[in-house]
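INFO batch 0412 | record 1 of 1 | parsing
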Amino acid sequence: MRSLGLDIGDRRIGVALSDPEGILASPLAVINRRNERFDIEAITEIIRQQQVGQVVVGLPLSMDGSLGQQAEKVKDFTRKLGEHTEVPLEYRDERLTTVMAERLKRAAGGKKKGEKTRYDAQAAAIILQGYLDEKHEPELT
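INFO prediction complete | emitting tokens
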């Protein structure tokens, strides 16, 4: 089953997709936000086209773990998205994923610090990969 990862920001939504086995997450796209209706339609179209069975949404918690204003915005948008799809939606802590995405890009020879590069899809892949890894961890008995 494919899973979709979302990194929801005010201007862009980073999108990542897992392989059909649900083992590896890869950056897929960046949706430049226009309005709520457009954004939801763009995501639900990806869900339909890619036959997604699970959506993992990054929740930008404050460093102390509390819900701040941005996390509340993400939860509100996710609730509205949930009204347009029957695919289960799940939250994952996304603290520092953009920082990790920037470092990964630089380490892989991406643009240097200070240049305007969007890391949204890579951040979505980091969020989704964490979920996939957790899901496939062997249980200790």
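INFO post-check: Strands lie at 2-8, 12-18, 25-32, 52-59, 89-93.
INFO record closed
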